[in-house]
Amino acid sequence: MVTIPVSPGLAICRKRRSQLSWKEPHLPVPSRRYSIVCICQVYNELSKGNLERFVKYVKPLVNALVVYDDGSTDGSYEYMLQQTPYVIRGIKNDFVNERSHKQRLLEEALQLSPDFILWLDADEVLTAHAAEYLQALCAMCEEEQVDGVVFHEINLWRSNNWRRVDSLYDAGWFVRLWRVTPGMRYEETLPGLHQRPYPDNIKRIQWTDAVKVLHYGFSTKQRLAHKYLTYQAHGQRGYEMLDRLISEEQLVLEKVPRSLFPPGLYQDDEKPVPLTWEESLAYVEEYRSEVFRPHFSIICLIYKSVKWLKFVYEQVLKYTEMDDKEFFFVANDATEEVL
């Protein structure tokens, strides 16, 4: 018997502290091969070192990958096009509309007529022997008419094999495997953070420890800084909603057994030494320019006309929102006046 939070989502776990006991389900031997499509949203994951790992360890588990690229500028979109033909390209980064993006992913995935949908983020992979367990879990869902299966999330902290267990970091249970049923969809797709990540018609849910999620989103200072600055920019405040992303004042770590890692993924790192709050803020600042770098560069060629230079510059400022843009003039044999 295992004790877990009532909610399958970490965002709800922050509000509900009650616990629920459950038993590991009986996993039948599958009588057929189930079709599974994995859906994933990405944004600049190539520069954070996540995409290669995701493709290597997730793609072999499923029949297809369906990806929504949320306006990446680091080559993530182009990289994923080489891995799967099912890539949706967002016009610009729109972090708060994640639920709307998931609806688009769901619609694209359903066109492939899968039996089940697996939801993962690009900084996540499944634990060892997931291929066999996924098929058995699909058979269990079909036999018991279960709509979704909840996996436990292991949050690796500033390392590749130490997980954080304080401050709700061990409380993450999410509905990852969805049985495809008629009318499957998100009823509301309004902007907002920490909304329910699975479709509204998923009602009957089963928890399992057979498969876990290895989450690398907190495994380096770079990834932690990106999360902290992104959530801060979207108005998150307080310890539970923001500061715990980098605070190590209550840090408790446990070593993750080698047996949980897929072959070739395990790395035996030294246990991270706790940082002070000042040290954590310092490394966040090191990555600020990387997180908020311009998404677009505007380049204008000029020659000898100062009037043309002023006209172009004023028109751009008048009609262009410059928050995520930078402006360059390229002078071709310019006069001293232009320079």
Task: Give a brief description.
The protein contains nine helices and 14 strands.
Question: Could you characterize the architecture of this molecule?
Answer:
With 339 residues, the protein is of the alpha/beta class. The chain has two domains: 2-260, Spore Coat Polysaccharide Biosynthesis Protein SpsA, Chain A (Alpha-Beta Complex); 296-331, no CATH class. It has helices at 10-13, 51-58, 76-81, 98-110, 130-144, 221-233, 277-286, 288-291, 306-319, and strands at 2-5, 19-22, 36-42, 64-69, 87-89, 116-119, 124-126, 148-155, 162-164, 173-179, 205-215, 253-255, 296-302, 325-331. An eight-stranded mixed beta sheet has the order 5-4-3-6-10-8-11-7, sandwiched between helices. Helix 2 (51-58) links the parallel strand 3 (36-42) and strand 4. Mean pLDDT is 87; it is low at 1-19.
Number of domains: 2
N-C termini distance: 75 Å
Strand order of the largest sheet: 5-4-3-6-10-8-11-7
Report the mean per-residue pLDDT as an integer: 87
Low-confidence stretches: 1-19
Secondary structure category: alpha/beta
Helices and strands, in N-to-C order?
Answer: EHEEHEHEHEEHEEEEHEHHEHE
Report Rg: 23 Å
Number of helices: 9
Query: What portion of the residues fall into strands of 2 or more residues?
Result: 15-25%
Task: Tell me which CATH architecture of the largest domain applies here.
Answer: Alpha-Beta Complex
Give helix % range.
25-40%
- The total of beta strands comes to 14
Shape: globular
CATH class of the largest domain: Alpha Beta
Largest sheet: 8 strands, mixed
Q: Enter the CATH topology name of the largest domain.
A: Spore Coat Polysaccharide Biosynthesis Protein SpsA, Chain A
